[in-house]
Amino acid sequence: MNIFNVVQNRVSTDYFNFLNANFTAQDVQEAIRNLKANSAPGLDGLSALFYQKYWDIIGGEIIEYILNILNNERSTHLINHSFISLIPKINSPTTPSDFRLISLCNVILKIITKSIANGIKQILPKITKEFQSAFVPGRLITENSLIDFETLHYIRKRRTKNNGYVGIKLDVAKSYDSLEWDFIENTMTAMGFPNNLIKVIMLCLNLLLSPSLLMVNPLAPLLLLEE
């Protein structure tokens, strides 16, 4: 069985047309406003605060450059570079697994991916299953904890002398840095995303010098949804 069949044609014609529309200057301006002002800077040493504060001066050129990438698939190689920072998960890390990789991307790249993410988020609740609670507007990941509690409570109450249920706790690793770019591309293709949008997203991923883009990329949660 083809694993992509479970997400086949999730994007309807109306959603396809919505995602296939050209990006506008307003989309870019909304993206820069949505970025955290004091987030970690990239290679140029500038945070989003610089762009927000001096947008009246540099905004026109930034918008033109970004729209050329979003609408005309212009190469992102000039901005697709990053620093890798190791963030300890515990107080006294001793092994590589004790660190979390954070890739510090260029702010312009963040604006591009935020523009894309803002569009995808509007249709996300309609193309994902109801049990996907994380990263979807209007849903909370904590809902999973409530479901787990109710399930275990049911198992405990339904136990009898001769019959019972068993719960299995799985140690599931996070999917960050564990997905192949080809898998992401094939999933979006199967779901029915517009080809030009897929190409732009893959431009933001494939050319990056660090594989840890997904750690700080606004697209990360949306690309890592199970279905």
List the defining traits of the structure above:
single chain, mainly alpha, 227 residues, two-stranded antiparallel ribbon
Mean of all residue-level pLDDT scores? 82
Global outline: globular
Measured between the Cα atoms of the first and last residue, the distance is: 16 Å
Number of strands: 2
> What count of helical segments does DSSP give?
9
Q: What oligomeric arrangement do these chains adopt?
A: single chain
In short:
The chain is mainly alpha-helical and 227 residues long. 47% of the residues lie in helices and 6% in strands.
Overview of this structure, please?
With 227 residues, the chain is mainly α. It is built from nine helices and two strands; from the N terminus they run ααααββααααα. Helix 7 packs antiparallel against helix 8. The protein is globular, with a radius of gyration of 21 Å. It starts with 12 loop residues before the first helix and ends with a helix.
